[in-house]
Each structure stands twice: as C-alpha cells, then as structure tokens.
Amino acid sequence: MEKGPQGGWPFLRRLVACEVAATLLCGGYIGLVLEPHNRLYMLFNREDTAALILLVAAGGFLAASLLHALAGATRGRSDRWLSPWFFFGIVLAAFNFRPALRLTLVDYLPWLTGTVYYLLIWALGGALTVAAYRKPRWRDWAAAGWRYSVYLWPILPILLFNLCMAPRWENVSGAPSRLGHRVDGKGAPVLIVILDMIGYEDLFADGGRVKDELPRLGDFAKTSTVYHRARAPGDETGRSMPGFLLQEEVGIVELGRGPAQWAPTNRPGASAKTAAEFEEALPYAFRQAGYRRVLIGYYLPFKALMPGAFDEVFIRSYYGAALSDQEGSPLGAAILHQLVRLVEESKDPVSAVAKQFQLHIRPFKQYFRNLTAEVQAEGLRHIRDSLSPGDFAVIHLPVPHQPYVFDAEGGRGQFGYLNPAGYPAQLEYADRLFGELMEALRETGMWDESWVIVLSDHGPHFRDYNGTSAGKRHVPLMVKAPGQEIRRDVDVPIRLVDLGELPDFPLRALTAEAGETGRGDVED
User: Fold this and answer.
1) 476: which residues sit within 8 A by CB, 6+ positions away?
2) Is residue 367 classed as helix, strand or coil in its secondary structure?
3) Rg of the Cα trace of the chain?
4) Any residues with CB less than 8 A from the CB of 466 and at least 6 apart, and which?
5) What is the DSSP string of 57-90?
6) Start-end of H helices in 76-192
7) Parallel, antiparallel, or unpaired for β 292-298 and 190-195?
8) Could you please report the per-residue DSSP string of 215-276?
9) What pairs with residue 210 in β-bridges?
10) Helices marked H in 1-45
C-alpha cells in the first residue's frame, strides 16, 4: 500500500500537525487580540484568554481525531486522498493573517465586495488543490507540506506564552448602587448623562427646538440651558470619553509598562500625562472636594485607566456575545464571544455560510440588548438607592450607538444591525431611557437641588460630515442648574472640556482649591 503523507503517523504527531494548522488558520485573529489597544477595548481578561486557547486547541484536537479515525478505517489511504487540501488550507491561513485586507484593497478595487473577495480566495485555494490532484509533483509537495508542518511546533508554546503574558483588563466592575445614601455629603449632586452618538442635528430641529419625537429630552430642555455650539473632545468614544473626564482634548491612550497616559492634542509637543496629572480632571477635582464619584457605563476600564478617580464603577465591554437575556458563566460567555469572533474573521466556507445567514450577528445583537439593559438598570438603582448631596455621578448609556437592535419602544429593531435606517428608532428609545432616569431623580426629591448635564460624546459614524471631523464633534449639551425653572439658549461656542466655564458650576472653584492644597496621594 502506498503511504499518504500521514499514513502510519502516531496520533501525537498528527495532533501536533493539526494544532499547528489550527493556530495558523486563527493566526490573524490571535494577532489582533495581542495588540494592546484591541485588548483594552475588548476588556480582554483571563476568561477571554482561556476561551481562545481552548477553542484553538479543541479545533486541532477534533481535526486530529477525525483524520486519525479515517486513516485507520481506510488503512491510511485517506491521508493521500486528502493531502492536496494542504494548499487550500495555506491560502486560507495566508488571507486570515490579514483580516482587514479587503478594506485596504477596496479603495483601489471598488468592485471587490465581500462575496467577490471570498470567491477569489476559494478559487485560488481550489485551483491549487485541483492542480495537486492532477499533478503528482504537486501532490508530493502537499504531502511534504503536511510532514514538515510538524516542525513548526515551537509556535504553539510561543503563542501560548504570549497570550498568557499579554496585559489583561480584568473587569473590576462593581455596583455603585450598593454605596447607599450618605448623610454627611455636602454640595449639590452632579449627575451627568451621556447618550452615545448623537449629533446636534439629530436632537434639534430648526430654531433650536428639540424634535417632537424626543419628548423627554424636550421636557428637560424646558428647564435647562441649551448650548447650541458645543464641541466634543473627539470623534469617537475612545478619545471623547477620556477627554471629557480629563477636561482636555487628548489622543488615544498610551499603554506602556506603567500607568496609562494621554497626550494633549491642543498643545503640540506636550508630554503625555497620567489621569491624575490633568489639572481639571472631573473625578479628581470632585474627589478633592470630598464628593463621592461613580461611573456607570461601558467601553473602557476606567478604574484601571484612572486610578483613584472613582469610588465605584460599573463597566461592561462594548464587545461580547450572548444567546439570551440570562447571564451565564463568565467562561461560557467568553467562549461564545471568542467563537463568534473567530467566525467573523475567518475566510473559510463554513464561517462564510454563518456570516451569509448572519448567525454570528445574533449573539452580538443580544449582547448589546443585555448591555443596554444592565447599564440602565444600574443607573436607575444608583439614583434611587445611593445618589446623595455631595455625589458626582456619570451614567453613560450605550444607545443610540450602533448596533441598531431596538425599536422606539425597546422591542427588536426592524432593520439590519448596522443599517442607519434603524438609528431614529433607537434614538427614540434612548429618549425613553433618559426619561426613566429623570423620573427616578424626581422621585428622590433631589431634582431641584441637583446639577444635571446631558450630552453626547460624538455624532453618528454613518454620516459623511464633508470629510471632516468638525461636524461629528458638534453635539448636544444641556445643563440644568440647581433651582433652574426656565430655558436659556446659548449660541457661544463651548467645548465639553470646558465645563468650568458653565455659570456657577463648581468645577473651577474645585480645581482652584485643589491647586492651593494639592490633591494628595492617588489611591488605587
């Protein structure tokens, strides 16, 4: 009997070859999760690391087991039958290593749609495979490829070591609502509500009137100061949220071996600084004045990025996957998420079928529904059970940011998850959630005495803005001061990093006091 490339191989040798193949096929995604900022934004933690390792290892083990059983049943002939598929696997691995290659090429090849791109990859892999079936020399090359792949085994411990040693962002999220009411708090409560991804034109109609389909925000505007020319610190949450909290326009967070740092963008050549070194940073300024500081939201691990800034945070990752509204085990959720991510990045036919029928989208959409519900629920609990005089609280709602999974009543959206047609309904749902927060504040009896600031961090990503970021940074800003009962309109430009310029807002006084007394040590 003529032996195939794996004929007579012991199971361990076959297993090593299959683990190498599985690792190479997943290499592009593994590279993505090893990039520091990707890990940060995904809140990549121990469970995610374990889940990715388990999935890749399980894929290799399953393939080895099936091939070994088939080789035994056919007395090794199946190895020779299947050996030409080595070329198809190599092509897939090569294109998987560059997950975003099509997005780079499409600028020069506008006809290169996702479907065309996949068909070209499969055509190339298929042509090489057919050639190996037809030409003995090519088949021998394929057989040699399988044999020599075993000698790539060092990549397995190297990648395992890198995955285990890469920085992890453990979810240190707590429950601000459990802090309870404080009896010794001094100063008007400050409540900041951030509705993610609303441009000025999305909220206001001509003449500065809040659009009729957003009645709760319209009611709030009747007793607040409306700033018509407010500018966000950035055009996406990764810059805008830190910039707002630090009260300075900054670049992307710099992640090194030490604490996270940000470089101011409006002062060329300025050195990057830690969060505590920004003179008017909101949480540190209120900390110096004896305020309790809490943040309820998502996307960034603020407790790790800004040590000592908050007494408690409730943070969830923007990225995740779920099959239902029931919270399962952290490891199970991580395995589902990593599996969906691998499917999303891979170019193999099975993953393509899953993407064609949007099977990978459903867990993302369910997760976002869960995320929004969790942030809203914790925000309501905190207002009702903990918000007190001398408190500074930030509630960052995920909606109306994409994916568009809600209709105006909170039911399931009627459009594709990235279809801008779903944005208006999700904006109306955000208005509904905002109304619930304000009603909860009124029920506490602290409405009149509180500062309430409503804003957005940037405008919608789907809008063109004439190719600049200026329009995307034109966002709503409405401020209700303690005791305010009438609307005021301000047409003077203001940046969200200049809250100290708001009339009577305590920030400027707090930072001046901090400069005189010093902030003291920042605790972790």
Assistant:
1) 198, 200, 203, 204, 230, 454, 455, 456
2) helix
3) 27
4) none
5) HHHHHHHHHHHHHHHHHTTTHHHHHHTTHHHHHH
6) 77-82, 85-96, 101-105, 114-134, 136-149, 155-165
7) unpaired
8) HHHHHHHTTSEEEEEEE-S-SSHHHHHHHHHHTS-B-SPB--SSS-BB-BSSSTTPPPB-GG
9) 204
10) 11-25, 27-34, 36-41
3-class DSSP state of 299:
coil
The one-digit pLDDT tens for each residue of the chain (524 residues) are 334 444 468 999 999 999 999 999 999 999 999 999 999 999 999 999 999 999 999 999 999 999 999 999 998 899 989 999 999 999 999 999 988 888 889 889 999 998 999 999 999 999 999 999 999 999 999 999 999 999 999 999 999 999 999 888 876 678 999 999 998 889 999 999 999 999 999 999 998 999 999 999 999 999 999 999 999 999 999 999 999 999 999 999 999 888 999 999 988 888 999 999 999 999 999 999 999 999 999 999 999 999 999 999 999 999 999 999 887 889 999 999 999 999 999 999 999 999 888 899 999 999 999 999 999 999 999 999 999 999 999 999 999 999 999 999 999 999 999 999 999 999 999 999 999 999 999 999 999 999 999 999 999 998 877 667 788 999 999 999 999 999 999 999 999 999 999 999 987 666 655 555 555 454 44
- C-alpha to C-alpha distance for 261 and 524, rounded to whole angstroms: 16
Residue located via tokens 């047609």: 421
Mutual angle of helices 11-25 and 27-34, in 10-degree steps? 60
Residue 142 near residue 97, CB atoms below 8 Å: no
CA distance 105 to 229: 38
Q: Can you give the pTM of this predicted structure?
A: 0.92
Closest by Cα among 405, 404, 414, 400 to 459: 400
| C-beta neighbour count of 300 within 10 angstroms | 26
CA distance 102 to 108: 10
DSSP 309: S
Smallest Cα–Cα separation from 57: which of 18, 10, 97?
18
CA–CA separation, 291 and 389 (whole Å): 8
Rounded Cα gap, residues 72 and 59, in angstroms: 20
Q: Give the separation between CA 387 and CA 180, rounded to whole angstroms.
A: 8
CB atoms within 10 A of CB 119: 13
